[in-house]
């Protein structure tokens, strides 16, 4: 598909690709492009920044150093200024060379790069200005305010941007960024979390960065949203035409389910088990979005931080109370291995239809895992589990473990563990998902791990995305690998 396909085909193609990745719906990638009176919008997804019909991968590096001009005109290294880059998708998969850094010193980007701004600490993607190209929301700090910058998509990718009003709302503005159509009007909205509150900024956004309107979101409980990006999940739970939101409390407090509608997000009496990460996907192919919560800090008897995952199944009201919560640990039937202290099972959770049978699989990160098949896990290690979806939901039957030394995975120098962060996407457009995960070793990098027939890596190639080679970035940082969630 390319940029001159008509609007109806665009929507159908986007829906088919989302179905292939998630088993029917529900891991939200934003709204389809809107037709205009001047001609068809470019083919794109909520992460297609250049409108070429392929998903792209935005990557933040908030601790990267940036060269800024000193009083004498010579470059001065500014630590923790931060930058973002994009690995553009193509028929070959993730782009590995020619990546460009976008900083607050880049042309058209408001402000100036400064020490400890951490530009790129949180990201969200979507067509915020409804022009047919995906845009990127980027959080950063300044001496006076925390800010969110909107970088605009174009036929050549991210190009220029504007500062989003609202930083005066409170400290930590932008510590959570989540995009979706929460009102059902076909426009992409943005959830912004800060301190003890979250707000819904309704799209479309204007050229000056202002939204159509702003409203507070009543979660029904007081939560702290500092560093809470993985504790919020967007998807479609109740078969509605709007995106819904799951919010987990800090320190493993029970979470809340909010359903979207024409007036915005509304709280429900539904609660879900607490944890540190969440994802929404249709594991049983009944059309409702199910909620998986990873709880890596869970202790099993004397096994400290062994971890667990809990599944709540969706219904018209948010959660099917008649089905109860399904709990998985590494001792569950069918799951390889056994519970050990420090495994961190559930450090992150993601979902995608890896075997293309219509049921979403659940991918569970366990960066502390010292699995029997992982010979040197006491030095480098960790791995991910894949639990299959079925008509009865997630099952341990047929589950598989993929350690850091799985055939087909890279072996970078230095000590490293996988995966603390997971993202399912399809960068080469073949309908077979890849799993993106950041790796911190001697140098930070992001792996785009291929899948084939429900299996991870092996004969499915993995592409390694390294930080950009850019004169304005004298040090690429150890945190290269902040992904949109």
Outline the structure in words:
- The protein contains one helix and 31 strands.
- The relative contact order is 0.14.
- It has one helix at 7-22, and strands at 57-61, 66-69, 75-78, 83-87, 123-126, 135-141, 146-151, 161-163, 176-180, 189-194, 197-202, 213-216, 232-235, 244-247, 255-259, 266-272, 277-281, 290-295, 308-312, 325-328, 349-352, 361-366, 381-388, 395-403, 417-418, 423-425, 434-440, 444-452, 455-456, 462-465, 482-483.
- It has 485 residues and is mainly beta.
- The strands form eight sheets. Strands 21, 22, 23, 24 and 25 form a five-stranded mixed beta sheet that branches. Strands 26, 27, 28, 29 and 30 form a five-stranded antiparallel beta sheet that branches. The protein has a four-stranded antiparallel beta sheet with strand order 5-6-7-8, with no helix packed on it.
List the helices and strands and how they pair.
Layout: H1 7-22, E1 57-61, E2 66-69, E3 75-78, E4 83-87, E5 123-126, E6 135-141, E7 146-151, E8 161-163, E9 176-180, E10 189-194, E11 197-202, E12 213-216, E13 232-235, E14 244-247, E15 255-259, E16 266-272, E17 277-281, E18 290-295, E19 308-312, E20 325-328, E21 349-352, E22 361-366, E23 381-388, E24 395-403, E25 417-418, E26 423-425, E27 434-440, E28 444-452, E29 455-456, E30 462-465, E31 482-483
Parallel strand pairs: 23-25
Antiparallel strand pairs: 1-4, 1-31, 2-3, 5-6, 6-7, 7-8, 9-10, 10-11, 11-12, 13-14, 14-15, 15-16, 17-18, 18-19, 19-20, 21-22, 22-23, 23-24, 26-27, 27-28, 28-29, 28-30
């Amino acid at each position: 598909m390319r940029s001159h396909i008509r609007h109806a085909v665009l929507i159908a193609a986007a829906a088919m690709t989302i179905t292939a990745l998630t088993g029917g719906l529900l891991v939200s990638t934003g709204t389809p492009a809107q037709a205009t009176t001047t001609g068809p919008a470019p083919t794109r997804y909520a992460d297609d920044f250049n409108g070429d019909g392929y998903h792209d991968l935005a990557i933040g590096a908030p601790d990267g150093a940036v060269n800024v001009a000193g009083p004498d005109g010579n470059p001065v290294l500014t630590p923790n200024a931060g930058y973002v880059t994009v690995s553009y998708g193509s028929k070959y998969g993730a782009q590995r060379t020619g990546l460009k850094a976008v900083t607050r010193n880049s042309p058209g980007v408001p402000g100036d790069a400064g020490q400890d701004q951490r530009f790129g600490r949180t990201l969200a993607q979507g067509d915020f200005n409804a022009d047919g190209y995906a845009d990127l929301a980027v959080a950063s700090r300044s001496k006076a305010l925390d800010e969110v910058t909107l970088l605009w998509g174009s036929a050549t990718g991210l190009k220029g941007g504007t500062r989003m009003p609202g930083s005066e709302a409170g400290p930590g503005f932008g510590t959570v960024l989540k995009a979706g159509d929460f009102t059902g009007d076909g426009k992409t909205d943005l959830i912004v979390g800060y301190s003890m509150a979250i707000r819904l900024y309704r799209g479309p956004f204007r050229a000056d960065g202002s939204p159509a309107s702003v409203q507070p979101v009543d979660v029904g409980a007081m939560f702290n949203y500092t560093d809470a990006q993985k504790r919020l999940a967007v998807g479609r739970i109740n078969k509605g035409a709007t995106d819904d939101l799951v919010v987990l409390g800090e320190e493993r407090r029970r979470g809340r389910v909010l359903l979207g509608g024409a007036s915005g997000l509304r709280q429900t009496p539904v609660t879900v088990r607490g944890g540190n990460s969440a994802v929404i996907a249709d594991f049983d192919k009944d059309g409702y979005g199910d909620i998986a919560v990873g709880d890596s800090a869970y202790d099993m008897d004397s096994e400290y931080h062994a971890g667990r995952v809990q599944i709540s199944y969706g219904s018209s009201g948010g959660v099917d109370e008649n089905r109860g919560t399904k709990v998985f640990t590494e001792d569950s039937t069918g799951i390889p291995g056994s519970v050990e202290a420090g495994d961190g099972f559930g450090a992150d959770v993601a979902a995608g239809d890896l075997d293309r049978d219509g049921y979403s699989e659940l991918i569970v990160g366990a960066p502390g895992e010292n699995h029997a098949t992982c010979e040197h896990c006491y030095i480098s290690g960790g791995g991910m589990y894949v639990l299959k979806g079925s008509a009865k939901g997630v099952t341990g039957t047929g589950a598989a473990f993929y350690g850091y030394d799985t055939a087909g995975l890279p072996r970078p120098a230095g000590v490293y563990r996988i995966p603390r962060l997971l993202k399912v996407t399809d960068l080469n457009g073949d309908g077979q998902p890849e799993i993106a995960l950041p790796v911190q070793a001697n140098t930070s990098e992001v792996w785009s791990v291929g899948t084939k027939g429900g299996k991870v890596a092996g004969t499915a190639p993995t592409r390694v995305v390294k930080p950009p080679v850019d004169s304005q970035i004298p040090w690429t940082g150890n945190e290269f690998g902040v992904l949109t969630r």
